[in-house]
Amino acid sequence: MEPALSGGPGLDGAGSRDTGSRPRVTTPATADAGSRTARNETTAPVTGSSAAVGGTDRTRVRRLPELAVHDRATLHAVLDAGRVGHLAIADGHQPYALPVAYARDGGRVLLHGSTGSRLFRHLAAGAPACLTVTLLDGLVLARSAFASSMNYRCAMVLGELSVVDGDDRLAALERISEQLLPGRWAAIRPPSAKELAATLVLALPLDECSVKVSAGPPDDPADDLDRPVWAGVVPVVETLGTPQPDPRLRHDLPPPEW
Hints:
Elements: H1 31-40, H2 72-81, E1 84-91, E2 94-105, E3 108-114, H3 118-124, E4 128-141, E5 149-160, E6 162-163, H4 167-180, H5 193-197, E7 199-205, E8 208-214, E9 232-235
Antiparallel strand pairs: 1-2, 1-4, 2-3, 3-7, 4-5, 4-9, 5-8, 6-7
Helix pairs in contact: 1-2
């Protein structure tokens, strides 16, 4: 899978490989992802909207460059389809990667954490960071371990985060909530002043990004095609399960529908 921009081997194989004519998917995986894309286009200032995706030396895809996708619509679609990203930061000589809920809001990504978090305070002070979002679409089962891989869509965003304050902070928290569970914000109690004081909201502009997409069947070499081994793609699909009510639920209410 290799969301990294360059360097050593990933699950695509131990070295360079023939990617054949495997297609690149440049549309959202679901209609829901597409609707979120459309809804988010005008909700915030579109910082970085004119910057080319993968257009800097740090974001140029060096390994399997044919899998790089450069249009901003695909970047938005990948971010809108995800719910969890990984935010990497170096604290001295020690790197950390934090799993975070996030939401794209126009030309930026919104995140939130505790004001008591040392790493979030470090980010708020302008420490450089890297956010990655990876969507696993399928396991590509080839006739050899070397040629086996994954179908995926991944985005990487580099930059410095800024603090979201004032009325914008509450709107940002609503945007994150709506990314995770659309429509939920209107039904729940809004954050109290104490809860807001304990919450740090940060914004990462989509100024320096890359997108990589892999899709399609295995790329077995011709001399492996006669091997009696099943080959193909096993799709991986994320679904929401049956809601489980809180044992302390005091009202006879139907579960939400998503």
